[in-house]
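Hey all, quick one. A colleague (J.T.) asked me to put the S-adenosylmethionine job into the tracker so the inputs and the structure tokens live in one place instead of scattered across chat threads. No bug as far as I know, just bookkeeping. Sequence used:
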Amino acid sequence: MVVTTRSLDDRYGRVATDLRVSLTDRCNLRCSYCMPPEGLDWLPDEAVLSHDEVVRLVRIGTDLLGIQEVRFTGGEPLVRRGLVGLVGRTRAIDPALEISLTTNALGLSRQAQALADAGLDRVNVSLDTMRADTFAEITRRDRHRDVVDGLAAARAAGLGPVKINAVLLRGVNDDEAPALLRWAIAEGYDLRFIEQMPLDAQHNWSRESMITADEIFSRLEAEFDLTPASEPRGSAPAELFTVDGGPATVGVIASVTRPFCGDCDRVRLTADGQIRNCLFAREESDLRAALRGGATDEQIADRWVLAMAGKRAGHGIDDPTFLQPDRPMSAIGG
Ligand code: SAM
């Protein structure tokens, strides 16, 4: 069989090489900026891609479409049964593939070493606060200790650089930027602040109340000397700054106030097998139907290429016609 290698280009010259794979829409936290206390109507089991289906799509992405990096996310990927085995099968596809995990770290202390042994390269852990009571307020679960332990286990297992993603919420944890940074530096973690985005299931986000990158800088600069890092940013979402002359850095992912769509190299696969060419896309392309309908690898690759071709120039959050996507972040895969 003749196999054609293509790339996931769009009309604006961008090429997607970084695949975010959501393994489940379920989560064991209830972060207030993400979902309501009662959770959401989870996808039924049969709608979710099996391990075999995930592995096949990742292989099509790497072998036929130029994917170089795979990040497993969710929902919470650690609640997906058999994650270690799935990482091992993904590693077997290509020893050079970058494989990472975005996680809340609950239970990571038990799985970090096995994940590293299976071939996971790195983790990004979400942690918004150093205060246990504030953590319980934001996530509606009293699990701060587990996250801190999970981070330490990831570091010990060599899943580095261990990155921490933090979202600041006005009046809740927005006073904590310097304390988070000081702690992350002391522990050897790379901290990045993420602007809150209009991706919550409750549609409570507002431009007026979100903490902007400018506010994050001014809070950090009250205690640290920040200078733009010399290394080129490339397609990385975080703007990096050297802290107090280095070597420590801090990142700011200003998706709302300083969008970086022009450099985007990402494509997302939802847990139910839909390709999304943007976090904020309003259309999806159904690869699960193709998979389950008996399509060949080439046919699936063709459908995927077509899905990317329609990627818009930017997410348009600041456009008056912006409409929040139907699916929240937890269902898309953050
Ligand atoms: N459960 C995993 C975790 O906690 O990292 C993976 C999925 S979670 C949706 C991925 C990231 O999205 C987390 O860092 C979370 O803080 C962030 N997130 C969720 N909703 C967000 C929002 N509305 N704006 C900005 N970040 C958000």
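Adding what we noticed when we looked at it: Residues 27, 33-34, 73-74, 76, 102-104, 126, 165, 167, 194, 196-197, 199-200, 329-330, 334 surround S-adenosylmethionine (CB under 6 Å). The CA atoms of residues 262 and 313 lie 7 Å apart.
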